[in-house]
Structure prediction request, 79 residues.
Amino acid sequence: MSTIQQVAGAAGTALFITLMSVGAADAAAAGASEVASTNAGVHAAFLLGACVATAAVVLTFFVRRPAPTEEDAPVLIQH
Prediction:
């Protein structure tokens, strides 16, 4: 695993935890109970995660393979 993958994973986790905390704090400030506010924060984090995952799946349909070059051509061996 490369360093960039580790940093991206840590940043993604931090983003979701921050979103969960902000969502829970907003719900608590609105007068929700502790359980309801935690539920609101978790819901917001999972909703963002679902949106990111859906966008990633949609974007995979637009990824193309690079054009083959002569170096990629199969080598024919004659007997």
About this structure: The two ends are 42 Å apart (CA to CA). Residues 24 and 40 are 6 Å apart (CA to CA). The first helix runs from residue 3 to 29. The chain has a mean pLDDT of 91.
